[in-house]
Amino acid sequence: xxxxxxxxxVVFTNPVAKIFDSYKQTKKDQNESGGILLGKxxxxxxxxxxxxxxxxxxxxxxxxxVRNVQKAQRIxxxxxxxxxGERIYLGEWHTHPEDTPxxxxxxxxLLSNMLKDSTMEIDFLFxxxxxxKNPFVAVQxxxxxxxxxxxxxxxxxxxxxxxxxxxxxxxxxxxxAGYLNLGPPGHDIYNAAFSQIFIGTINSIFALSEISDYxxxxxxxxxxxxxx
Length: 228
What we know:
It is built from 4 helices and 13 strands. By secondary structure, it is an alpha+beta fold.
C-alpha cells in the first residue's frame, strides 16, 4: 500500500497490510476492529510499519469500535522507547462493514481531537478505514478538515526515482516508488526485473565498500536506500 501525501510517499509495509486484510468484516456477525498506527517520518517518506490490534480491553460492535486509551498510550510509549524516539503515533485505523468505507462524524471528531491534544512535532495524523473491498486512507492536518482519500500508486502512475545528494554533490542514496506500466495487469515480470536492478545496486555497494550504517526500506513497489 503506497499513497501520495503532498511531496511525500506514505508506505504501509506488507505485514501491516496483511493485518488489515485479516480484520475485514466479511461475516455478518463480525464486529468492527481497530487500533493505532505507528511509524517513522522522514523528509520525503512516511512509513507505517506497526499497528496495534484489538483486544479484550477495547469495546466493539457491528458498527462501532472504541479502543482503550490507556493501553494505546502504553503501546505508543513502548514503541517510542524501543526505537530511540524514531517510531511515533501516526493515527488511527478501524474497519467498516461496507465495500468502500467513508468516515463517520465520530471518526472525524476522534482524529481531530487526537491531533489537537498531541504534543508531537508533526501537524498531521492518518485515518485508515478498512472496507470489505477497498480501504479509505486520508489525512487530518491541524486547522483543516479531513482530506479526501489519498491516491494510491498504480501502474498508470509510472515510476518515480529520486537520487539523494549532499551539498557537495555526493550521492548518498536513492528512492524508487511506483510501477512500470509495460504490461497488462497481473504481469509483474517488468516490475520484478526493475526491482532486482536496484537491489543488485545495493548489494554491489555492500560488496565494494565497508558501509555499516544505512537505512533500507523495501516493500512492494517501493525501495529506499540511504547511507547514514
